[in-house]
């Protein structure tokens, strides 16, 4: 279990209120994004890495809810996400979802929804290709690995025209880029992005 005091020690990026932050710049010239940002810096062997590991591999969904609430509070305070009406968690492939027992991005989304009041739709995006781990791949190799990995169901979006994509950590941005492209190919919508963690800009 992660104590409340530990969360206060996490390194905050300060990105969410600001346009043109390093997370947004990952998508420049690749896919149109209305707003993007991350709450904390994520580095190897850091406290946040241990917290995310607990969420993903130690069967502890309450950690994800807590992270989601913290992220949700910052999203609510930022005027840049005020037009969002629905949250879309990045999906897991069904095989990985069965192995893990839950989608950590959906748990984080639930924490955000508690704070912001946005609807969650987890049947819009589907991961149809089981890809190998992305951990040690660069952006180009990740995008090759993710080609055609996601599909989007425009009918499941209903009336929503500004979605918020949620994931736990962003490194190169390849996974979120692939999701955004699938969404924008399926429907005329605006896409914003938020994650709990991001790797520091180089």
Automatic annotation (TrEMBL):
It comes from the Bacteria. Belongs to the ComF/GntX family. This is Amidophosphoribosyltransferase. It comes from Filimonas zeae.
């Amino acid at each position: 279990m992660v104590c409340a005091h530990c969360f206060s020690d996490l390194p905050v990026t300060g990105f969410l209120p600001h346009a043109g932050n390093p997370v947004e710049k990952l998508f420049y010239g690749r896919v149109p994004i209305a707003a993007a940002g991350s709450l904390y810096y994520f580095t190897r062997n850091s406290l946040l890495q241990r917290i995310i590991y607990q969420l993903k591999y130690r069967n502890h969904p309450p950690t994800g809810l807590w992270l989601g609430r913290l992220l949700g509070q910052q999203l609510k305070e930022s005027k840049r996400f005020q037009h969002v009406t629905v949250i879309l968690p990045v999906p897991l492939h069904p095989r990985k979802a069965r192995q893990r027992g839950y989608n950590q991005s959906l748990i984080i989304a639930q924490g955000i929804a508690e704070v912001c009041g946005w609807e969650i739709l987890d049947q819009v995006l589907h991961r149809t290709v089981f890809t190998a781990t992305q951990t040690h791949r660069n952006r180009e190799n990740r995008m090759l690995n993710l080609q055609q990995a996601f599909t989007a169901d425009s009918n499941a979006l209903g009336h929503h025209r500004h979605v918020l994509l949620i994931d736990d950590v962003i490194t190169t941005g390849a996974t979120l880029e692939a999701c955004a492209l699938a969404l924008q190919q399926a429907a005329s919508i605006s896409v914003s992005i938020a994650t709990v963690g991001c790797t520091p800009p180089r």
